[in-house]
# Entry
Amino acid sequence: MKKVTAIILASVLTLVLAGCGNQEVQTEASVVETSPAQEEGSGTEGVKSETETAEEGRRYTFGISMPQLDNDGFKANLIGIQQFAEENNIELVVTDGKATADTQMQNIEDLITKEVDALVMCPVDSGAAAAAVKKAQDAGIPVIGFDSDASDSGRLAYVGTDNYDFGATAAKSMAEMLGGEGEVAICMVPGAIAQEERAEGFKSWLAENAPDIKVVSELNDEGDVAKSETVCTALLQSNPNIKGIFSTHGYGAPGAAAAARTLNMLENVVIIGSDYSSAVIELLQSGDVEGTVVDDPYLIGYEAFMLAYAAAHPTEVPSANPPFGHVPPIIYGGSQLLTGEMLKDEAVLAKYQNPPAVN
# Structure
């Protein structure tokens, strides 16, 4: 266990320098064993205290509070989480928030009652997360956020994407496709911090670098394909000058494309989405959606669990949040635009069309 922890902490340092119903799924994780030879060293390195010996025989139980499980991006997060759990003898209790804050908060209450050793969460509503995080950590359960941050909640660390940069990536691509001018709109869910950051990054980049592109409408599509189609249809009918639509989440682009298709406006409107799903991949291939900004959800899930393990397993490394183990406050990954042209590469297509399955 000590060897595994050392590897984890070294990985964390490298990364820092380089840069949800009450449905539960029980996931069995495999046992990782370390041979006596691997533990031997000079002097007293191979001599374990009673505490260390007990720790090596312990199996941790970690809780995962997912905002929803019927989403390809969150499924990829979960695959990364499962991979780390299998490598480190951790049992998982996965909960599905069903995209509602109340359900997710009840799930977290249940995980606290189960006395899990750590909690990894992606909040449905960042503002609602603070009380749950405080209760968990007051009970001795370290909390790590991923994908969508709740920076004011008191969570120990966050693993995800720099969402301002994510939105700027979309803006730069939109500007290139529109030739630097035109009226555009944003589809989003107000109150979802990650989406608000993406929208702000999009608007800020345009204001500074492409001032002749104006964001004239911000639409609340409630994170739903059908709702996105409805609001985008109304937008395009009321303002035929709209030349581009950016969605800050994975369901907006399919809805916007459906609206533009129905109104025979696909040739006139550039649509850029966020994240990916099988539906988005098909729309990229057909050309109905020009691009979607993606990060690496598998790696985000894996790294979030890596930090949860470190927080639940204090070492001699001084921690800013005792009694929990040392973890860096933020790990950011990158993002890029995925296009239909890129999907013509069989290796790229396979990555998005045939991702590993959730166990």
About this structure: Residues 1-54 have pLDDT under 50 and may be disordered. The domain at 2-155+297-328 is CATH 3.40.50.2300 (Rossmann fold). The radius of gyration is 22 Å.
